[in-house]
Amino acid sequence: MKNLRFLEIFQLVKAYPNPFGAAIKVVDGFDLIVPQGELVSIIGHSGCGKSTVLTMIAGLNDVTSGGIIVDGREVEGPAPDRAVVFQAPCLLPWMTSLGNVLIGVKSVYPHASKKDQHDLAAHALSLVGLGSSLDKYPREMSGGMQQRVGIARAIALKPKVLLLDEPFGRLDSLTRMELQDVILNILNVQKITTLLITHDVDEAVYMSDRIVMMTNGPGAKVGEIMTIDFPKPRERLSMMADERFYGYRERLLRFLDDCGHAKEAAKAVKTA
What we know:
Helices cover 39% and strands 24% of the residues. The protein is an alpha/beta fold. It has a 6-stranded mixed β-sheet with strand order 6-7-8-3-9-10, with helices on both faces. The N and C termini lie far apart (57 Å).
């Protein structure tokens, strides 16, 4: 049975000390409930705290107050039930693609046989289209191929939650679209609950079940949530030909534009 409260984020606050005394709340009261298997994008202007929220869910950044629960357990630090794919894959250059994936597999499954560890890592690489590139080193791979290794490294851990922090931000448009479909194809089979941080409006609409729009920081929170009513698996050309796609896109752009005007107005008040 699908868990409708698989990931729960309630009244999440992240504050950093201010040299003048009072702490600055970058994120202030972020609330979100994500059902099992859903892909939710988080979008907002630079500096609104999107990546801060993601790193707190990952357990890489301490929570000032509030809480995060994954599958009934409160997050208290990093753990393999939450895997992160960052914008830069950060591969070890002296290891092959297989070796880079095996690092995490061996750490999470230390009691598995070497064959099982190898097979798990190789399978993850095959899922991202690198089944014939197990022995390639990062220097022998394009940026897109390196990011595929980063994705394989994450999914090989069989996480409960996949956290994607602008994973396609450094890639060209064609490679970006290819990897969007790689991720969606994997999620359609494995049903991993996923959060995607992105600046790309089209990407958010194409990939997401819901899109969370964050208000400006400091003191950012959920401003609006939009449900994307397209069936899965997604078909890019049919979506792009559907007027609903552009309705969702326009609503997102309107929200971001309003936030942009609010940001400029706040700056004007400060400098007045």
